[in-house]
Amino acid sequence: MAPHKPFSAILLSVSLCLTALAGTKSQLTAPLDDTLWESSQWISAADAPVVTGRIEGGNERAADGASWFLSAIKNPAEVASARWMTTGLGVYSLYINGKPIGEEILKPGFTHHAKTKLSYTYDITDAISRKAGAENVFSAQSTPGWWADKIITPGGHQGMIGRKPAFRGVIELTFADGSRKVYGTDTIAWKAGMNSFNHYAYGCVGEWLWETAAGIASEPSDPGFKTNVMRPVPDRRLGSLDAVYRSPQGVIESHWKYDGDDWAWTFTVPEGSQAKVTLPGQTQETVYAPGTHSVKLSLPE
Questions:
Q1: CA-only gyration radius of the chain, Å
Q2: What is the DSSP code (8-state) at residue 203?
Q3: Is 16 helix (H, G, I), strand (E, B) or coil?
């Protein structure tokens, strides 16, 4: 496996938090062999908030915040098929390369906290890049849900029975030659952290996504988005990005996608405004009138 990116760098590539991305092709399938769970561990974010003290009155709700779990896997050979078996403590959602996996809501569902942990297994063959040497970013977001809430914790208990969200999963890659390799969650290959836009650091992530990756900003000398400044700086690790911003003048859109070294960008300027556009790798600024515009460029690495 290739060296892992810092958590903050991978988080930037997971643009789902601020963009309306289409779901990735995936479907529920039969679970992997139960013995493969032994190749994985439960993982949780060290800095996830925990409800403490006697449960009564003001602390009868789950702690705030969402935990993120991320890992980048580089294909050692061409992949013929892939499956991802997952479960969680708390409500969780799955993503590959920033795009959602599955259509289920509130996974894994309510069960007896001490007896049953439901799992979901997906055929993710069409959701990953299958070429030898290609890298895919797998991620999961988990929130406390019923697991770390008053729902399963009796009044008077010291803290919640479920202390914090956790995630567990096994990825099985089957290669073109018929061989297989399994990647389980652990505390080395998987990075964990919290996501809260009340925190300055993660607010910076949001700013980066809107103003840098999507290229949507207002001209400082002409506030209110009467004049938009659109200077997208695409990152090919994202693959694609879809951003929609509802400004005072109307909806501003920025949609771009890589296809090899070719980069295609479609953007919308609302009525009653204009956009000063600077394309990636260029310095010349062009003013665009209201409407939807398309640009194609070659952006080799």
A1: 22
A2: H
A3: helix
C-beta atoms surrounding 31 within 10 Å: 15
List, for residues 9-51, the tens digit of each pLDDT value. Answer: 333 333 333 333 444 568 999 999 999 999 999 999 887 878 8
Q: What does the pLDDT look like over 108-120, one tens digit per residue?
A: 988 888 888 899 9
Report how far residue 88's alpha carbon sits from residue 74's, in angstroms, rounded to the nearest whole number.
24
Local structure of 89: helix, strand or coil? strand
3-state secondary structure 247-278: ECCEEEEEEEEEECCEEEEEEEECCCCEEEEC
For residue 201, report the phi and psi dihedrals to the nearest 5 degrees. -60, -45
Q: Check: pTM over 0.90? Answer yes or no.
A: no
* DSSP reduced 3-state for 157: coil
Amino acid of residue 162: G
Give all domains of the chain, ordered by start, each with its CATH number: 7-200 (2.60.120.260), 214-298 (2.60.420.10)
